[in-house]
Specification:
With 314 residues, the protein is an alpha/beta fold. Helices cover 29% and strands 18% of the residues. InterPro entries: D-isomer_DH_NAD-bd.
Length: 314
């Protein structure tokens, strides 16, 4: 069995009897001599390269994504007979750490501290960092803060205990209500009431038609005045014009985003100049953790002729 691995993958793939790994450029279409491969790893390829592979690789049996979100693989148009597996779980640790870092930066007024540093100004008040709440109503500590994680999946299950350890009261929001990983989760019918009590909203929503601009002006208006926002999901889930307006008006005390609707974020985007906004360039995940274990498991399943793979997309 031939397995194509893009050169964007930095990990060494596990040896498997009967499997030949071939490293190919991530940025270019699959070379003609490797169109007979049965497995393709999706990581770092532009959408056009995946779409080209979907058309030309007629012997594919498995596309193994190392991405947490499956949108680019689904959009590529691989035939129904090709099994698709996502990289859910491979990015939980790094994304949870990044989300926590962003949350702490907002709560402890690090963006303002950096601004004061550039001004060579010693500001011991720093928007109320030594008070229970800042001048804008924002919390100055996670201890006792109400945190809502919108998109309560694998990454949230890693992040929630970290927030709990710092004293936060964590509630999840998802398509269906119930309890997940020991945390209460609300659905659409209770979201507005939950947002009204939220000090910090963490968004980890995937891209889909149902999540497009899920956080719009109406939802932003439902947040407690002085709330903070962290988005480590997808940029398409936030109405960026409404976000800028909420920050400019002061209703939203601060925000930190690792994603944007258009990436790379254009230099003339108004997001760069929005007040109290911290931006990182989609680096929360960066590198999948132990992807070879998932790949080996699913290749074994394909070799044994089993129909199910781990993290199936369809």
């Amino acid at each position: 069995m031939k397995v194509l691995v893009p050169d964007a993958v930095r990990d060494t793939m596990p040896p498997i009897d009967g499997v030949e790994y071939v490293i190919i450029p991530a940025s270019s279409p699959v070379p003609d001599e490797h169109l007979d491969a049965e497995v393709l790893v999706a990581w770092g390829q532009p959408p056009a390269v995946l779409q080209d592979a979907a058309r030309r690789m007629t012997g594919l049996r498995l596309v193994q994504g190392f991405l947490a979100g499956p949108d680019s693989m689904v959009a590529a148009g691989f035939p129904e007979g090709v099994q698709l597996s996502s990289g859910v779980g491979l990015h939980d640790g790094p994304v949870a750490e990044h989300a926590l870092g962003m949350a702490l930066a907002l709560v402890r007024n690090v963006p303002l501290a950096l601004q004061r540093m550039c001004e060579h100004a010693w500001d011991p008040y720093l928007n109320g960092s030594v008070e229970p709440r800042g001048a804008d109503g924002s919390v100055s500590t996670l201890n006792g803060a109400n945190v809502t994680i919108w998109g309560f999946g694998s990454i949230a299950s890693r992040l929630a205990p970290l927030l709990t350890a710092l004293g936060a009261r964590v509630t999840g929001a998802a398509r269906s209500a119930g309890e997940r990983h020991g945390y209460p989760v609300v659905a659409e019918d209770r979201l507005a009431a939950t947002l009204a009590e939220t000090d910090l909203l963490v968004m980890i929503l995937p891209t889909s038609p149902s999540t497009a601009k899920a956080l719009d002006a109406e939802r932003l208006g439902q947040l407690k005045p002085g709330a903070l926002l962290v988005n480590v999901g997808r940029g398409s889930t936030v109405d960026e014009a409404a976000l800028i307006e909420a920050l400019t008006s002061g209703r939203l005390a601060g925000a930190a985003i690792d994603v944007a609707a258009t990436e790379p974020l254009p230099g003339d985007s108004p997001l760069w100049d929005a007040p109290n906004l911290l931006i990182t360039p989609h680096v929360a995940g960066g590198r999948p953790q132990n992807p070879g274990d998932l790949l080996r498991h699913n290749i074994d399943a394909v070799l044994r002729g089993e129909g199910d793979v781990t993290n199936p997309i369809r």
